[in-house]
Amino acid sequence: MDKKWEIVFDYLMYLIRENKVLPGEILPSQNMLKTKFKYSEQPIRIAFNKLIELKIVKSVNGKGFVVQDKLSNNLLFSFRELFPGSKNEYYDLIEVTCDKNISQLTGFQEGIKLFHFKCLRKTKENENILYQESYISKSKFKNLTIDQLNQNGLMLFIEQNSNIIVSHSSKNISFTEEEQNFELLKHFQNLNFKSFILDSGRVYDIFGEIIEFRKSWYNPKFFEWTFIEWRK
């Protein structure tokens, strides 16, 4: 289990990531967090110091800890932010048993029941950006349906229908040729390229448990990431 300061840190990041506390607004005070988590002052102070170090918040005398705007910290919470106005189409939600191969791929425990589903993300102009496949634990999402995914997406479903707090995701970005992946290629068959940008990774909760494993194949035309490189 995470250290106490990491749990507080992940909770504060959740508030910022989900726009519950916007840039220019003030995070909950140290006293409020001490009451909520029943922790001493030390882990809460460490969590705030980490946010300051990452330029995510700044301390303002007489106010508290104020969330910085993204131009100040170059903070990216989701690859979806690279594609404003995009929309997802979910389909093929099926139940599978996590066998040895799936366990090695996803990190889920062998033998448990999983939901496997697919997603196609499109621009406002209806161009295909990516094709994605996901695995999630059935025990945590018993009532999940395709209609709910298409209405809200997985992250909003988690926020509105569970006690899960999403913490972070790990990503492995690479180039790949997928000549044998029929489901992928049928969505991009009219485009003149063979190589895709593959984003393979896991989404975790604040206790380090896997929420979702996903593989996303991006159309290279839309994959551009501008960032700030800091020198020390």
UniProtKB/TrEMBL annotation:
MF-aspect GO terms: DNA binding; DNA-binding transcription factor activity
Domain of life: Bacteria
GO biological process, one term: negative regulation of DNA-templated transcription
Domain named HTH gntR-type: residues: 2-70
Keywords: DNA-binding, Transcription, Transcription regulation
Matches recorded under Pfam families: GntR, UTRA
SUPFAM superfamilies: Chorismate lyase-like (SSF64288), Winged helix' DNA-binding domain (SSF46785)
Record's protein name: HTH gntR-type domain-containing protein
Organism listed in the record: Spiroplasma diminutum CUAS-1
Lineage: Bacteria, Bacillati, Mycoplasmatota, Mollicutes, Entomoplasmatales
